[in-house]
Amino acid sequence: MHVAGSIHADAMAQGPHWLRVPEDVNALLTSLWSETARRRDDGVLEVGGLPVTEIARRCGTPVYVLDEADFHHRARAFVEAFDGWGVYYAAKAFVSARVAGWAVADGLNVDCSTAGELTVALRGGVPGERIGMHGNNKSEAELAMALDAGVGRIIVDSFDEIERLSALAAAREALPKVMVRVTTGVEAHTHEYIATAHEDQKFGFSVAAGQAQEALRRCEADPHLELVGIHSHIGSQIFETLGFEVAARRILALHANMAREFGRELPEMDLGGGFGIAYTSTDHPVPPADLADQLRAIVAAEADRLGVAIPRMSIEPGRAIVGPTTMALYRVGTVKQVVVDGTAARTYISVDGGMSDNIRPALYAAAYSATLAGRRSEAAPRLSRIVGKHCEGGDILVRDEFMPADIHPGDLVAVPASGAYSRAMASNYNMVPRPPVVSVHDGELHTLLRRETLDDVLGLDVGYRPVP
Known about the structure:
- By secondary structure, the chain is of the alpha/beta class.
- It has helices at 52-59, 68-81, 97-105, 115-123, 140-149, 159-172, 211-221, 242-262, 288-306, 319-322, 360-364, 454-458; strands at residues 38-39, 45-47, 50-51, 63-67, 86-90, 109-112, 131-133, 153-156, 177-183, 205-206, 226-232, 268-270, 312-315, 326-340, 343-351, 371-372, 381-387, 396-404, 412-415, 437-441, 444-449.
- It contains 12 helices and 21 strands.
């Protein structure tokens, strides 16, 4: 460990052990990019039939560029692989009205966790019955909105919420379908902040502590709630099914125990999402078809062992669908060679975005890749760090990448796998407007979310007066 902290531990020359010097700095690792992304003979990156130079000219930078064909392909791959299961697109990864509409057209349901996400889904044309409502602290207003929209299921997350929802349902003479979110004690192999099934965290009811059983009993006994099943989610950016296997065993055991107590088997069960995608060469996602085969086998074997019927199963992919569809496109502003102990250690490439449009590297050291996007380079690869324009030393977009040694101000840089949690978690830190999201398909470009202006950002400041 470097004395200045983990972000400097690899400062000398070679970067992390897994990062290899590329034979061709212009080559694209196809597993990281959306299906229509390619490099033309002149070196310009193209997606959806449009060169990024044209996208930058028309939209400016930074900009998120979504490959529409890739979105549809990934959505339909999950629907087809999990035929007979419910597949809920996790809106928290990224949602707009048009994306919500695509999701429904592709056969997905939509999972929401706030009034804002629910509003976008409804305005995007998602029928209420195809929406699931999550959240560990849903307000009365959010629950009322979900009831009034006729959402297909509400995943309850606390005893307070059960009482709150029951009272609202009674007042409306409604009978909402509810699932109980449980924590199974599974330690998913992912970052602490995105692991959600261990005991010491905010989500769900503990099975080990008996809270899950009590929550199920209360919902089953409540005349204003229709208990339909058990929900589990073990975390995000997970590449193996072992965690899901352990979780499935524990929630099916709970399902079987409660069936004996209730005199009926609950009809539904949700294994959540969290399926990983490729951000770097070290990531190897499981294809949806293989994932479906493995999860089906796990559930079938355990249900058979317990002597219960297989419930109607569902999953909630978000990142796995939208993450790989989108690249973030930036323009280089400055290039700085950093010298450590008299040795040139690394090149710092500053771009016109940063942690305000992708907080994940700063939040939990998420690793990304990048490429020179606007031209071909014959220069040698050089260890580089791509950083933003914000007043933070941790404003890092790509911690380690080999970029061409001749990169210079004005060049375009593209970061793949930027579709999930980049725009969704974007901020206005340093009063920087958030970038637009555009989709490209067959040479056509459409705006999904327009670029914010300074008037947008400052519009909440009651002392601010726009210049006429």
